[in-house]
């Protein structure tokens, strides 16, 4: 079956994280769920130091004190 959304034994029952939208070039995309999140995301790294004394700057041995 090629359809955007179809229901069996119910109508308009959808979970908030379920992808939904049209099929092919209908003008609607899959705008919900993990697939959409992955499509519009970029992986980044964030490091947060929680120690009371800061570490050396970039590992070159210079203290920030």
Characteristic key phrases:
65 residues; 9% helix; little secondary structure
Structure notes:
The structure is a single chain. This protein has 65 residues and is mostly loops. It has one domain (1-65). It is built from 1 helix and no strands.
First and last CA, distance: 66 Å
Identify low-pLDDT runs.
none
Strand elements, count:
0
Give the percentage of residues in beta strands.
under 5%
Q: What is the C-alpha radius of gyration, as a whole number of Å?
A: 23 Å
Shape assignment: elongated
**Largest sheet features:** none
Percentage of residues assigned to helices: under 10%
Number of helices: 1
Number of domains: 1
Structural class: little secondary structure
| Mean of pLDDT | 68
SSE sequence, one letter per element: H
